[in-house]
Amino acid sequence: MLLTILSALIIGLVFYKLKVPGGLMIGAVIGACAYNVFSGDAYMPPEAKFVAQIAAGAFVGVGVNREDLKQMKSIFKIALFVISSYFVLNVISGLIISRVGGIDPLTGMLCSAPGGLSDIPLIAEDMGADSSKVLVLQFARYLLGLGVFPTLINLLPEENAKVAVDKPTNVAKRNSKNADVPNTVLSLLVATASGFLGKYSGMPGGTMAFATVGTLIFKILYPKACINIIVRRVAQLLSGAYVGAKIGMAQLIDLKTLALPAVMLIVCYSLAAFIMGTFLYKRGVFTRREAYLAATPAGASDMALISEDLGISNIKIIILQVMRMVVVISIFPVLLNAIAKLVS
Fold this sequence. Notes:
Blueprint: H1 2-17, H2 23-39, H3 46-61, H4 66-70, H5 75-101, H6 105-111, H7 119-126, H8 131-155, H9 172-178, H10 181-200, H11 206-221, H12 229-244, H13 249-257, H14 259-282, H15 288-294, H16 300-306, H17 315-330, H18 332-343
Helix pairs in contact: 1-2, 1-12, 2-12, 3-10, 3-11, 3-12, 3-16, 5-6, 5-14, 5-17, 6-8, 6-18, 7-8, 8-13, 8-14, 10-11, 14-15, 15-17, 16-17
């Protein structure tokens, strides 16, 4: 485990120093993956993912204030549009992958589900789908959402035009720079307790969702709540190392054999993200950068941990990503299983 973390840290720091968007997390994925490929011994315990989700939820929670909550009503219509669009995309791209890759419809649709890299393969295994193929193609989607999209978004010009809706101010960045240790510890304790409740509630995606809500409530009751930026960096490292440790030589070989389905998946998600992002921007919902980040098919905790690396601090985007995560993990598999039975 220590060697895995060390490998992730070295490459993560290289990417961070090169100012790659989300570089610490992306580098950690590559570092842990490289160590696993060459040694086969990479290991990160499930607790690493739990810690990263707690930190991500805490960071989101301390970035919300009372004024932001007043504007949260508008997020539900946006979430309905984004989640519905991704469901249609999930079904269409999944059936295409199934036909092109010669795999069963359920496996194909789970391969393209816009959920978490660690969650969807476990769900696939429980449902009797081919979890190894799901893991490989989910990894391709993960690289697209975390590695490619943020870099492209970072190349977009800063938005100067006025956005139609009021943009909530996220104070997380300001707090992170001046966060004192006692209040950071206190905020993390609240997030951890809330995260444990979410984990044992049985609710899919409950850890981060509960950690976010618990810290948000605490922030409203105790305005001094804050999270030091070091916590976010550590969470990025752990999250990246956890993902990278799951990818070894066998998965890379499978990725080669599933090259065509992977290309189809990337094309489908790229087009969909571009269309959705453009729609959200043209409707004045978000600025250009925010719109494309909102449509990025990466995990909620990943977006929470790297959004400010892109200079984007609109809390609505992270709340939107959390809502997508919960719906995708809890509702999508049931619907996809029903559709798979119809087309089989």
